[in-house]
Amino acid sequence: MTVQLQTPVWRVLLGYVRPFRWVLVAGAVLSLMTGATGLALPLVVRELVTGLQSDQGVAGLLALMTLLILGNAAIGAYGSYLLERTAESVVLLARRRLVSRLLWLRVPAVDAAEPGDLMSRVTSDTTLLRQVTTGSFVSAVTSTLTLVATVVLMATLDPVLLVVTLGALLVAQVVMRLVIPRIRRASKQAQESVGIMGAALERVLGALRTVKASGAEERERDRLHAAAGDAYGAGVRAAKWEAIVGNVGGLVMQLAFITVIGLGGSRVASGAIDIGTLVAFLLYLIYLMPSLRELVNAATQYQRGAAAVARISEVESLPVETPGEPPSVTHEPASVTFERVRFRYQPDLPEVHRGVSFTVPPGGMTAFVGPSGAGKTTVFSLVERFYEPESGRVLVDGTDVRDWPLAGLRAAIGYVEQDAPVLSGTLRENLLFGAPAATPLEIDDILGVTRLSAMVARLPDGLDTPVGHRGIKLSGGERQRIAIARALLRRPRLLLLDEVTSQLDAVNEAALRATIADAATTTTVLVVAHRLSTVTMADRIVVMDAGEVRAVGTHADLVTGDPLYAELATTQLLATAHLE
Ligand SMILES: Nc1ncnc2c1ncn2[C@@H]1O[C@H](COP(=O)(O)OP(=O)(O)OP(=O)(O)O)[C@@H](O)[C@H]1O
User: Fold this and answer.
1) Out of the domains of life, which is the source (predicted)?
2) pLDDT of residue 494
3) Which residue's CA lies nearest to atom 30 of ligand 1?
4) How many Å lie between the centroid of ligand 1 and the Cα of residue 573?
């Protein structure tokens, strides 16, 4: 997925953080208070050292020190809890936003994406936002402030020693500038490899039987190992640069420490500063280190987060559907009209519909026949408005589908796809998927109609039996009938059945034909049919070939009137002769 981002990464990040700004400010203030109590300590120590030297009472100072230490710990703990909690909230927000986006993605965008990669963006990339929120934004602010305050306090103690310290800070800064872009690149690669792994996993686990039957386990393992290896390589590269940045910083500070001790010692000896001041200065130098480390950390976390944000924003910039008004409840059969519809799936692919026109009046049954690839399933996809025509119009009940509220349009339609998908969950969940408000009586009724009652009765848990991932525990015919039952339960105005009889045995097929005939009395039924027996009972047959409608008529009309149909009828449509 390569979508060019318009908004700079920090802006996108701020967008995620904005709802929590006040908690973050509170967390930052607490962090600063921790810093301030920490910074006050060396001053108290200096007084203590001076007090001890001159034999003054130091009980008060000791009590103040204890208070500062305890206060520092308590405020620090609460502050970091607040920040971590907020960071979790940012992740939650990002995940919810992504999920809300994903479910409404337009179908062409889904066609172009890898589900496993999309999944890794929701699960893995979002976790990186966690560190950015606390590790980056807040730390950057608080450690900068602490750093500045420390430096100011150091300046008041001894400007000469400060110059040495600033020199060290400058070196650390140069190193950071060199290394940080490399961390970002490595992080992006690591996240991309995780996405590739997700996609490869989804592909393999989704078709594990085929993988096994093809003996492809080892090859697929190698692909996955390679992706995992890439993620490892990129992760190690990032770790290497992070280690360099972190330790160069530490090294520079230690050198500064040694220099300050040497130089400071000689300044104490010459009487330029007293010993208490040197001790306090050294303590500040020690305090400087965590702030500096945090700043480096903030910068590296930001780079990691930036890589993740880029991947998250790519998903957020994909086109989504707007469901529109809630559907009105009517069950009248609907009409369907195609007016010179031209359509291609992608701009660089050939046309799949090359001026398709037909009209289906309300009610009755219409069969679509034609060679494989003629564009029959595409008719259904356009009626559902999964895609939009390049030119021409698709009308349902006389209204262009683009002018229908999407939710209303789809509520009017019951659609059984070619491979009749069943979702993991129980049978009941599958049946109620399209009609959550259906009553037990209606379910019973539909089970009878789709000849599922006997099968359900045989199951120990009846309707509450889990069907397995994609209904793997069901037979192909059972899956098809459940998909049909699910569509019928919606009491649709328009029923789209794509090759629903293909996997049924003769008895069930005859039963289903009766069901379809029954449905056609109250609903408009469109079927893509591969069985002659289904086609012959249709009120009208639309013969499609190479993206065009060749002929429309009844079986009797077409057998004599259309050579392609006559050929299909004798050679390609599956005849169930013994039942006819
Ligand atoms: N999502 C898609 N992206 C790109 N091309 C597609 C997509 N779906 C279908 N096609 C192409 O569009 C053409 C028509 O497909 P369609 O599924 O409408 O044919 P069909 O008549 O239903 O065929 P069959 O009887 O084999 O199911 C085919 O050449 C197919 O390769």
Assistant:
1) Bacteria
2) 95
3) 373
4) 18
